[in-house]
Amino acid sequence: MKGLVALYNVTLMSALGLGSPLWVPLLAWRPRLRTGFFPKLTGKAPLRKGRGPSPIWFHAVSVGEVMASLPLIRALASSFKDRAVWLSTVTSTGQEVAKAKAQGIRGTFYLPYDLPWSVGRAIHRMRPALFVTAETEIWPNLLVSMKARGIASAMVNGRISDRSFPRYKRFKPLFKKVLECFEVFCMQSQESAERVLAMGADPERVHVVGNLKFDISVAPVEASHWRGLLGIPEGAQVWVAGSTHPGEEEKILNAFLKLSARCPQLYLVIAPRAPERFDEVETLVACTGAPVRRRSRAGKTGARVILLDSIGELAQVYSLATVVFVGGSLQNRGGHNPLEAALHGKPVVFGPHMENFKEIASLLLQAQAARSVENQEELVHVVEEILAKPELGEKMGQNAKAVLAAHKGATQRTMQLLEPLLENDPWA
Question: Which of 214, 395, 416, 426 has its CA 20 to 30 A from that of 183?
Answer without folding.
Answer: 214
